[in-house]
Amino acid sequence: MPIVTIQITREGSDPARDAVTAAEKAALIKGASQLLFDVLGKPLDATFVVIEEVPLENWGMGGLPVAEYRRRRRSAQAD
């Protein structure tokens, strides 16, 4: 019985949105389950997928909170 945990920021794939849609979550569940079936032969009905939406302020990258990391990256790209 595989358990897959997917952690994503609440902003989704489009920073203008504040959440991932139900359709996107369904696609993640289907895709992760299918991957385990294709690679390991794990039955779809025995695979559990947990999606955790994490507030952006609880993520970090490059030693910085993600928002600050992105600000610096945009600033560097503008130069």
From TrEMBL:
Family matches, as InterPro entries: 4-OT-like_dom, Tautomerase/MIF_sf
Family of the protein in this entry: Belongs to the 4-oxalocrotonate tautomerase family.
Cited SUPFAM superfamilies: Tautomerase/MIF (SSF55331)
Record-linked Pfam families: Tautomerase
Gene3D superfamilies cross-referenced by the UniProt entry: Macrophage Migration Inhibitory Factor (3.30.429.10)
Protein's UniProt keywords contain Transport: no
Organism listed in the record: Methylobacterium oxalidis
Protein name according to UniProt: 4-oxalocrotonate tautomerase
Domain 4-oxalocrotonate tautomerase-like as annotated: residue spans: 2-67
